[in-house]
Amino acid sequence: MRSKQFTAKPGFWAGFFLPQKWKLSFSAKTPDRFSLSLKQSVELPFDSVAAIGTSKGLLWTAIEIRSSNRTDVLGGLGSDAAEKLVTELRSAINDHLVSTIEANKAQLIEIDEAIQTLTRSGHQYLALGDISQTIATVPGNAAQAIAHPLFNIDQVPKSLAQQFPASLSMLADPNERQRYNNKFVTSELERFDAFFSDLDGRSLSKEQREACIRLEDNNLLVASAGSGKTATMVGKVAYLLDKGLYRPEEILLLAFNNDAASELRGRLAKQLKISVSDLRCKVSTFHALGRGIIEQVEGRPRQLANWVEHPAGESQLIEQLIQELRQTNPAFQRLWTELLVLYPKADIPVDVFDSEEDYRQYISDRTQRDGGTISTLSGIYVKSLQEQRIANWLWLNSIPFEYERQIAIGGDGNDQLYVQPDFYYPNIDTFHEHFAINKDGTSPFKTMLNRLSKNVKGIKKRASTSSKRPAHRRMTIPCWKSSKHSCANAASNWCLDQLKRY
Known about the structure:
Layout: E1 6-8, E2 23-26, E3 33-37, E4 41-45, E5 49-56, E6 61-67, E7 71-77, H1 79-103, H2 108-121, H3 128-136, H4 141-146, H5 158-161, H6 169-172, H7 174-191, H8 193-197, H9 206-213, H10 229-243, E8 252-255, H11 258-272, E9 282-285, H12 286-298, H13 313-328, H14 330-342, H15 356-369, E10 374-375, E11 381-382, H16 385-396, E12 402-403, E13 407-410, E14 417-419, E15 423-425, E16 430-435, H17 446-464, E17 479-483, H18 494-500
Parallel strand pairs: 8-9, 16-17
Antiparallel strand pairs: 1-2, 2-3, 3-4, 5-6, 6-7, 10-11, 12-15, 13-14, 15-16
């Protein structure tokens, strides 16, 4: 289906704010390119367009068109208008690519042979990019059209798709490629068992080995501190070089700081049995890479702010920014005060721990560092960090309370009944129990749910059997409970909203 001609430009009001206006046109008379009027009129051939996307700003949405030799950002569009335009642009490009394939169908035979040669070799894990690169090596316009980064095989007309060779299912069907790759990974784990068993001075786990072998266009490896991420990076590079998939100078490794980059460089050189000075893989920090790119593009080194080179420069800058915000932004001042009051120290969430014993050991170690107590701004001592947060919030909002006060709720003489709630609010004669309960009603502590059930039911039962003495005019005592989840957001007025009900 041929795309209709269209013209796009910024919205009416956006035109008053943009530094320069633009107009993007497509016409059936020139079905292989866009016409763009910006600073000057240019033609954007479809063959050179690598990506089209959107970026949302505060008021408007912009379209970004990346070509082989330029990037154009066209702003001033509403969100819906931007999405519609992106769809039209991609559709126009895909229609042109489909027409190119239809006019060169005889080349599909060579494309089929190239893909079959790739899959029969079983030499490597296959990402979509690998298949597209293989197709691009085939001479002819049809191969270039199929390998185009914006070619959408799902939008190919059925009449043409029926003439595609079966090997193109590797491009069209994710399950087909997944089956191939899963079979390859299983075989490769066995073939390189000895290699991964003595790598970087250790034997990699199954998950680490698989992370080395899988080579998608984009890979995300999620791992905790100390779990072997650096060893996996070293292993992946060693594996790629051993397979001959990439040259050393084609590999870039990034670290967050100089110490990590130096360690990575040393461990990689040791694994490859070469000196660090002979290492041709580029190992760098993110900042050094960015600075190098800027120097290469602009032809001169980038001048950094004075504070960058000083150890305390960053903290001083942050402190300066905080002070300025406190003086000019009342909302920030309130949030900053609550942060310091309610979160004086970083707290590891209770649900991270495997057992109650582990959590209590953490609390014990922390309280010992703090002098063996958990104190609050009101001067009382509490038993948990969450109770500390609640007490500090009450103090911050000038709400009178008593902590674990023993309260009589009924009975006479020796049969007098008492409860000892976490918090008691004398101004409204209400008490408040806090439980380490998650949003889904579960707790990391087995005893917590029992405590919740017994305490609340027990309080109501005792109160209902109390005598009609003047001190206990109500049949039940007002009581409400909070949980770890409900009090998680310190910036909210959840507690205050609950208190206003009474």
